[in-house]
Amino acid sequence: MAGRNIFSERALASLIRSGDSQKFGIDLKEHRDSIIAGASAAAGSGSVDLSQFSLVQIRGKSCAYYNDYNTVLLLRAISRHLRNRLRVVTPNRNKIVRGVVETLLDGTPMHATRRDISSFYETIPISAIRDRLIYDTASSALVRTYLKTFFETHCPMEKDHGVPRGIGLSALISELAMRTFDQSVRDFRGVYKYYRFADDILVFSTCESSEVSGFLLDNLPTPMTFNPEKSDEVCFPGKKEADLGGRSLDYLGYEFTAKQVNGNRDSRHVRVSISQRKLKKIQSRVILSFKDYARTGDWGLLKDRVKYLSANFRVQRQGAEFVRSSRNVFSGIYFNYPLCGEYQYKSSVMRCSAYDSRELKELDGFYHSMLRKISGGITPSQLLQMKRLSFNKGYELRIRVRFYPRRISEINRGWRNA
Description:
By secondary structure, the chain is an alpha+beta fold. It contains 17 helices and 13 strands.
């Protein structure tokens, strides 16, 4: 009965998201009740076919995609059921970033070890999780039948690792598969704080990074490996040691620079900014936008591309079937990096000063240097409009713009591999 309850019309109705009508070619405004009733009947009768899906390439990775709305709602329902029953906590990027700041504010000497798992979803070990979910009598027979079909389709028995990208159920399975590893790292002697956001790992320890590195490598589930290009080790000295220049750490798109402050024996000073790697990516996209303009002469597209990079916009949550507190989320130059600023403990209270955004001012300077190189094909009025676009203002004023999905596809086409 539990399985049928999670597929009831009321339960499935709560899983509808803004944008579903356009994404799946249905009219939820006019036919919501009949669509939900049909999805509930199909799910409850066991007739939803999980073997029918499409594959798309996103950033060089193969991602699975279900076009049938009945299937999408079914997977959302199963994900919610398993997440609640197994108490799976979805990693929250902002919460992790705040935790990293609080860790660095502590004046204790520590070592930071960062590692990134290569091809994370493709190497997730699934044998134990597959058996656990399929034979777990706490879930209904109907739910277990659907899970068995899901695994047979995407993770057959002869395959002991790998889950499909793009499906929320895969994210839940990956969190379950990493639980033992996560706990072993937290329990390792000398580990002070441990953070993992999907494939991105950060460990703060009182022992040397070499010890932590060896432990991580020895205990990483087979066949996972670390990406050497995204590995880093940083030593943050204690409050009695001179460190006025500061030490920097790149994690989750931010750069954390921590340094001791004269006269403050209790806390470091931590500056959080957009990482150089992310800034270089934006810079590369600006260059590609101007190159495409030189080829096509499409001034409107050039303007929209720079506006897209330098402002903020509302997007529908992607990935999938995890149920979020909000169906939409803002993205862009501010909303991707809202925690930039200067942090310090004062009177035992953590305080944050506004982000000075000097990196974005430098990015504006680079952008204006590109504008000066435009030769012909643009009117003074158009040039003035381009000059008004600013990465710094987009961040400080949280400027919001709106683009239709088709225009966003045109915008992104210019830097698909950048």
